[in-house]
Amino acid sequence: MVVHPATKLLADFRALPSRKERPRTFLEIASYPHYENACSNILAFFMDPEESHGLGTLVLDALMFTGDNTEAEKGIGGNVSVEREVITSKGRIDLLVTSDDHAIVIENKIHAGVSNPFSDYADHLGHIADGRSKRKFLLTLYPTSEGSEWGFTNLTHEEFVRQIRSRLGLYVSDVDARYLIVFLDFLNTLESLQKGSRMDKGFVRLLSERTNDVSSFLAGVFGFKDELRKKVRDLGNIIVLGRHQDVRQFFWREQDELYDTLVHDIRVHEELLVALEIYISAEGWGIYIWPRRGDRSELLDLLQRSMVTFDDEGEEGVSHPAYFDYDEDLDRISPVLQEIIDKLATGREA
Fold it and tell me: Residue 278's pLDDT is what?
């Protein structure tokens, strides 16, 4: 038996591991995960041990333990100061952290390209270090060698979060519970930026190996959707609406779904607007009626008064028992739909 290429393609797709949907973080809901300034502001808050979060030097200690740093065991030191947007001769440093023992420059990148004046930042750090140990970090989503010739240590957000999480248990005794929730949400957001911006590798491999099959399959899907729209348009052109002033016809479908719908909105009176939908998919035609304005009980009363047959199913609306095959002649479908429209449109008079 010859197996259609689309059948094999779908079988290979179903064999891929299912994607696990992760909960959205507060920052993602607020549409802030990609904003570098927002990210840097939050980092500055949690890096400052004198702020009200109660996490002390957790974030700075995690930062100090990255890279080749023999002085990490000594900690950040006292009199910590965290500054944002420090102006240099050629740019602005995202974060400048100083203490009795250390002076640290941090350049934070989310999606913007790395094109900073690293030599200028290094010179600025040299001028203000005043004998303190100097550290330079470039925070990015993915590893990069940018800035390395001026002594910048590249640290991915994923690795930084890992370092923070590994030490979190040592710092939570004095933490404010409200800020802990915000902080953990922030860490989840940083992790999601790295993980969420890459497509599943198995799916990418399938597209690479089966490019021609995928292209042919998509062309078939698009052609099918075009045919669905043509069918509902042709059906709509047969329906006579001139006798009803309170009926509006239009077409509707979900972008990612394989069905199309001819809709008639029927205004029975000011409090009741009925949506009559006849939809088509590969399985055939079906009819659904629901109250766009008004409640279900009013719809049921209207259907009974108008003598429109229905199956009392669904929490919102009802189904009509008429069903038609995909290739049914539209001249057989249109009289059924026309009769329902006429009855509902005159339901106020019944």
Answer: 97
Residue 23, φ and ψ in degrees, nearest 5: -65, 145
What pTM was estimated for this model as a whole?
0.53
Return the H-helix or E-strand segment holding 347.
Answer: none
**Residue whose C-alpha is closest to residue 38's, from 190, 147, 178, 177:** 190
For residue 205, what are its two tokens? 């491999």
Query: 259-269 and 272-281 as β-strands: parallel, antiparallel, unpaired?
Result: antiparallel
Contact 49, 62 (CB under 8 A): no
Residue ranges, the chain, pLDDT below 50: 197, 350
Q: What local confidence, expressed as pLDDT, does residue 350 receive? A: 45
Contacts of 203 (CB under 8 A, 6+ apart): 13, 16
**Alpha carbons 94 and 231: distance in angstroms, whole number:** 58
Q: Are 299 and 313 in contact (CB under 8 A)?
A: no
In order, the DSSP letters of 102-139 are EEEEEEE-SSS-----HHHHHHHHHHHHTTSEEEEEEE
Q: What angle do CA 225, 229, 233 make, to 5 degrees?
A: 170
Nearest to 279 by CA among 331, 339, 319: 319
Amino acid present at 36:
E
**Residue in 240, 216, 69 with CA at minimum distance from that of residue 151:** 69
| Contact (CB, 8 A) for 300 and 311 | no
Strand partners, 281: 259, 284
